[in-house]
Design brief:
The complex is a heterotrimer. Chain A is an alpha/beta fold. Chain A has a domain at 18-99 and 176-255 and 276-281: Rossmann fold, CATH 3.40.50.300. Helices cover 35% and strands 22% of the residues of chain A. In chain A, a hairpin with a 6-residue loop joins strand 9 (227-231) and strand 10 (238-243). The longest helix of chain A has 24 residues, at 258-281. Chain A starts with 10 loop residues before the first helix and ends in a 6-residue tail after the last helix. Chain B is mainly alpha-helical. By secondary structure, chain C is mostly helical. Chain C is globular and about 80 Å long. The chains are: A alpha/beta, B mainly alpha, C mainly alpha. At the A-C interface, loops of A face loops of C.
Chain lengths: 287, 289, 276
C-alpha cells in the first residue's frame, strides 16, 4: 500500500498524545487487605506511538490504563499527558475526558442506542456538534469503517466484530489524543481477530493516534505495536521492553516473516516466565 | 469491505409475533393447554354441579356461573348486562390506575437516585427498609385514621405496596448496570445529566419493567384486601358483599372477573415494556447477544 | 514492602462505616419528624395533616413496654408465627415438586401451566370468602388462602430457576454417564436451589400479608381468633392507636426475622455461593 497522501504528518501531530508515567504505584484495599497492584512503574510513551502492554492476567496492567483514563486513582507517582499532569501528588484521580477514549474488553456500546447513535454520542454531549451534524458524521465514519448497512441497528443485532469496530469509531469521532484499548479482542476467535487487526492498523495509518493497547496475546502485540512492554505478575513492573522496528503499513504476511520470528523469540521467554508465575500464584484476577 | 445486509429488511416486531404464534401452533403445546384447561373446568363442573360432592357443592360450578353471567335478567342481580357490574369494575380499575401512577411516579425517580448516588441511598434506604417489612394490611387502621373518607385510604394502601416494589426494583436496576457503560460515558465527555438520561435510565429499564409487572400485581392484591375490609364498590367489595348475603354465584363471578382484569393490566404493562425496550426484542430475536 | 493492615474489631468498623452512620442519622431524623408532627397539636395547637392524627413514637415505646408484659401479646406472636409457618411449609411441600415437575416435563407443563396461570391473577385474598364456605373451620380456611399466596410465588420461581440452568451442565453430566435420576438429584435440584430460596423469601412476605388479612377479617370471637392481626384490629376497634402501631411494628419485625431465617438457611444450604 502506498503512503496515504491524505495523512498530514506535521511535527504537531507527531508529538500529540505523549504519555509520561513516572514512578507510579497503586495499592488496592479490598476487604481490608492491602494489595499492591502496581509497583513503582515508569514508562514514556511518545506521541503517535503504538504501545503494547503484555502480561499475565490480573497483573495490574489494566490498573495503568484505568489510571490514565481516570477510572482509578494512583497511590504514588505521576502521569502526564503532553506535559500536563493527569494525576499525581495532590490529585490522585485523573479527570475523565474525550482526549483519552477507552475501548472496553467486553464491549461497551450502549445496548439501547443504535450504532449510529452510539458513535454520535461523544460529540453531542460535548457540545461540539449538533445532533444532525453528529449523526451525519457518525454514519460517514461508519461507512468508512465498512459498517455501512448496519448504522441503524442495535449492538445486540450485529456480530461482536462489527460491534467492536463500531466502538472504535465511537472513540475516534472525538479526535482523541490517546486511544486506550483494554484487551478489546480477547473474546474473539482468531479469524475475526485478524480482521480486527487489519482494521485497527488501517485506522492508525490514517490518524496516527497514540495507542495504548493491553493484551495477553504476544503475536497480536508484535504485529500491531511499535514497542512491546512486558509486565511482571502482580505487583506489576516493567520486565522487558522490545522495539518492533518493522515498517508500516503492515499486513498479515508479516506474521510469517523472519523479522517477526526473531522478535517473538526475543520476547517469548520473558512472557512465558511471568505466565508460569501467575498460574502458580493462582489468585483471582483483580478488576 | 462493506457489509451488505440480506435483501429485504429484518422482520418488524408485529411480524415476529405472528411468526412465533404460527410456529407455536405446530407444537403440541396449545393443544395440551386446551386439554389442561378443559380438564380443570371439567373436574370443577363434576365436583360442584354434577356429583355435588361435599364440600364442593357449596360453591357454584362453572355452568351456573356462566349462565348467570350471561343472563339478561340475573337471579342474583349481577351479570354482563347489569350496570353495577361495570361500575364495580370501573371503580377498581380507576383506583388501580391512580395508585399505580402515583407509585410509579414516586418510586421510579426515587429508585433511580438511590441506585445512582450512594450518598442518597445511604440516607433513604434505611428508612425504606424499616417500613417495607410491615405488611400493607397492617396499615389499614392507620390509613383510615390518617385519611378521610373511603377512597383515599384504599388508594393509599395500594400505592404503598406498589411503591415499595417499584422503588426497590428500580434501584436494583440501576445497580445492575455494568460499570463499563458508566466509564464509557465518562471518557466520551459526558456531564452528570447526560449519564443520568443516557445510561442510568435506559440501563435500568429492564428491571424497572419487571418491577412494574410485580407492582401491579401487588397493587391489585392490596386493593382487593382494602376493598374487602372497608370499601364501597369495587371488585373486592363485590366479593365480600355477595358473600355476606350468600350470593355465591355473584361472588365467583367477581373473583373470575378480578382475575381477568388483573391479567389484562399486567399484560398492558408487559406490552408497554416491550415497546420501550425495542433493543432487547431485536437482540433476543437474533438468538441472544 | 506493603504490610497487611490489622483489622479493627467488627463493631468498631461498623461505627466507622459511613453508610452505617448515615443510616442511623436518617432513622433518627425520621423519628424526630414523626414525633414533632404527631405532637404538633398538643405543643402548638395546630394539627399537621396526616401525621397529626398518628400516635407519636414516644407513646408507642411506652405502650410497647406495657404490652410486652402482657402474655396475650406474646401469644399473638406465637399464633401468627405458627400459622405462617404451617401455611408456608405446606406451600413449599406442594409447590416445589409441582414447579419442578413442570420444569422437567414439558407435557406436564403444557397441561398444568395454563390453568395455573389463569387462576394466578386472582389475588389470594379474593379467595377468602370462598375458602370460608368451603373449609369446615376458620383456621383451615385461613391456611388455604395462605397456602395459595405462597404457592404461586414458589412455583413461578422454581420454574424460572430450573429452566435457566445452563444446559451445558446437563450435557456434561450425561457425557459422564449420569442417569435421569442422577441428573435430577445432582444438577437440577441444586441448580434450582437459589430460585427456591428466593421464591421462599418472597413467598414468606406474602404469607405474612395473607395471615394478617385472614386474622383481621375473620378473627375476634370465633375459634381461630388471636394472632397479631387480631391484635392490631382489636386495638383499632378499641381506639388505642399507639397499640396499633406497636402491632404494626411487631408484625414487621416478625416478617423480617422470618425472611432473614430463610436467607440464612439458604446460605447454609448453598456453600458454593458464599463468596469472600
Amino acid at each position: 500500500m502506498a503512503a496515504n497522501p491524505n495523512v498530514v504528518s506535521t511535527a504537531a501531530t507527531q508529538t500529540r498524545g505523549a504519555i509520561s508515567i513516572r514512578n507510579v504505584s497503586k495499592i488496592y484495599d479490598p476487604g481490608g487487605v492491602n494489595v499492591l497492584a502496581v509497583d513503582d512503574c515508569s514508562l514514556e510513551i511518545a506521541g503517535g506511538e503504538v504501545c503494547m502492554i503484555v502480561g499475565p492476567s490480573g497483573c495490574g496492567k489494566t490498573t495503568l490504563l484505568n489510571a490514565i483514563a481516570g477510572f482509578h486513582s494512583i497511590t504514588e507517582g505521576q502521569i502526564d499527558l503532553d506535559g500536563e499532569m493527569l494525576c499525581g501528588p495532590g490529585k490522585p484521580l485523573a479527570d475523565q475526558g474525550a482526549d483519552r477514549v477507552v475501548v472496553f474488553q467486553n464491549g461497551a456500546l450502549f445496548p439501547w442506542k443504535t450504532l449510529a447513535d452510539n458513535v454520535a454520542y461523544g460529540p453531542i454531549v460535548q457540545g461540539v456538534m449538533s445532533k444532525s451534524e453528529a449523526r451525519e458524521k457518525a454514519i460517514h465514519m461508519l461507512d468508512e469503517a465498512g459498517l455501512s448497512g448496519v448504522a441503524d441497528k442495535y449492538p445486540g443485532e450485529v456480530s461482536s466484530g462489527m460491534a467492536r469496530r463500531a466502538e472504535i469509531v465511537r472513540a475516534l469521532i472525538n479526535d482523541p489524543k490517546v486511544l486506550l484499548l483494554d484487551e478489546p479482542y480477547r473474546a474473539m476467535d482468531a479469524l475475526t481477530k485478524s480482521i480486527m487487526h487489519e482494521s485497527l492498523l488501517e485506522v492508525y495509518d490514517r490518524t496516527k493516534v497514540t495507542i495504548f493497547f493491553i493484551t495477553h496475546d504476544l503475536e497480536e502485540a508484535i504485529f500491531l505495536g511499535d514497542r512491546v512492554i512486558v509486565m511482571t505478575t502482580r505487583p506489576a513492573k516493567t520486565k522487558k521492553i522490545v522495539d518492533v522496528k518493522i515498517e508500516r503499513p503492515r499486513d498479515y504476511r508479516l506474521l510469517s516473516s523472519e523479522d517477526f520470528r526473531v522478535l517473538m523469540e526475543e520476547t517469548k521467554s520473558a512472557v512465558h516466565e511471568e505466565a508460569v508465575k501467575a498460574f502458580e500464584a493462582g489468585e483471582r484476577e483483580l478488576a | 469491505m462493506s457489509n451488505q445486509t440480506a435483501p429485504g429488511s429484518a422482520p418488524s416486531g408485529g411480524q415476529l409475533m405472528f411468526l412465533r404464534a404460527a410456529k407455536a401452533l405446530r407444537t403440541p403445546m396449545p393443544y395440551l393447554a386446551f386439554i389442561g384447561i378443559a380438564l380443570w373446568l371439567g373436574i370443577y363442573f363434576l365436583l360442584n354441579e354434577y356429583w355435588k360432592i361435599f364440600p364442593f357443592y357449596k360453591i357454584p360450578g362453572p355452568v351456573e356461573v356462566v349462565t348467570e353471567w350471561m343472563n339478561k335478567d340475573p337471579i342474583w342481580g349481577t351479570s354482563l348486562f347489569t350496570e353495577d357490574y361495570y361500575r364495580n369494575i370501573w371503580v377498581s380499575c380507576r383506583r388501580i390506575g391512580i395508585a399505580f401512577a402515583l407509585a410509579t411516579g414516586l418510586g421510579v425517580p426515587l429508585g433511580l437516585f438511590m441506585g445512582w448516588s450512594k450518598k442518597f441511598k445511604d440516607y433513604t434506604f434505611p428508612v425504606l427498609e424499616t417500613l417495607r417489612p410491615i405488611p400493607i394490611l397492617a396499615w389499614v387502621p392507620l390509613a383510615i385514621v390518617m385519611f378521610a373518607g373511603f377512597e383515599t385510604p384504599i388508594i393509599y394502601l395500594a400505592t404503598l405496596a406498589s411503591f415499595f416494589v417499584t422503588a426497590l426494583n428500580t434501584m436494583l436496576g440501576v445497580e445492575s448496570i455494568d460499570e463499563s457503560y458508566f466509564r464509557a460515558a465518562g471518557c466520551l465527555g459526558s456531564k452528570k445529566h447526560h449519564v443520568f438520561w443516557h445510561v442510568v435510565v435506559p440501563g435500568a429499564l429492564p428491571f424497572i419493567f419487571t418491577g412494574l409487572q410485580i407492582s401491579i400485581g401487588v397493587a391489585w392484591f392490596s386493593l382487593v384486601a382494602a376493598e374487602m375490609i372497608s370499601g364501597d364498590y369495587g371488585l373486592g367489595y363485590m366479593i365480600m358483599d355477595s358473600y355476606m348475603v350468600n350470593k355465591y354465584t355473584t361472588m365467583v363471578m367477581a373473583m373470575l372477573t378480578l382475575g381477568f382484569v388483573g391479567w389484562i393490566t399486567s399484560a398492558m404493562v408487559r406490552i408497554a415494556g416491550y415497546r420501550m425496550m425495542q433493543w432487547r426484542q431485536k437482540a433476543l430475536g437474533q438468538g441472544g447477544a | 514492602m506493603v504490610e497487611k493492615t490489622v483489622k479493627a474489631p467488627a463493631i468498631v468498623r461498623l461505627f466507622r462505616d459511613e453508610t452505617f452512620r448515615r443510616g442511623v442519622v436518617a432513622i433518627l431524623v425520621f423519628l424526630v419528624l414523626w414525633e414533632i408532627g404527631a405532637q404538633f397539636k398538643s405543643w402548638f395547637g395546630v394539627m399537621v395533616p396526616f401525621i397529626g392524627k398518628v400516635a407519636p413514637p414516644s407513646a408507642v415505646v411506652v405502650r410497647w413496654l406495657e404490652v410486652g408484659q402482657w402474655a396475650g401479646y406474646w401469644e399473638s406472636w406465637y399464633l401468627s408465627t405458627g400459622r405462617v409457618f404451617l401455611g408456608f411449609v405446606v406451600a413449599q411441600v406442594i409447590g416445589i415438586p409441582f414447579g419442578l415437575a413442570m420444569a422437567v416435563n414439558k407435557y406436564f407443563r403444557g397441561m398444568f401451566f395454563p390453568p395455573f396461570e389463569i387462576l394466578r391473577p386472582i389475588p389470594p385474598l379474593a379467595w377468602v370468602p370462598a375458602s370460608i364456605i368451603f373449609w369446615p373451620t376458620t383456621e383451615l380456611s385461613i391456611m388455604f388462602v395462605t397456602f395459595l399466596g405462597a404457592f404461586y410465588t414458589i412455583v413461578i420461581n422454581v420454574l424460572g430457576g430450573a429452566r435457566s440452568i445452563d444446559i451445558q451442565y446437563l450435557r456434561a453430566a450425561q457425557s459422564m454417564g449420569a442417569s435421569q435420576w442422577d441428573l435430577f438429584r445432582k444438577i437440577i435440584l441444586p441448580g434450582t436451589l437459589p430460585s427456591i430460596f428466593i421464591g421462599a423469601a418472597v413467598g414468606m412476605g406474602i404469607t405474612w400479608e395473607v395471615v394478617l388479612a385472614g386474622e383481621m377479617i375473620s378473627g375476634g370471637g370465633q375459634q381461630g381468633g388471636g394472632g397479631l392481626g387480631f391484635f392490631i384490629w382489636s386495638s383499632y376497634m378499641g381506639g388505642v392507636m399507639d397499640q396499633v402501631i406497636v402491632g404494626m411494628i411487631s408484625i414487621g419485625l416478625a416478617g423480617y426475622i422470618s425472611s432473614s431465617l430463610i436467607r440464612y438457611v439458604g446460605y447454609l444450604a448453598m456453600p458454593w455461593r458464599r463468596m469472600f
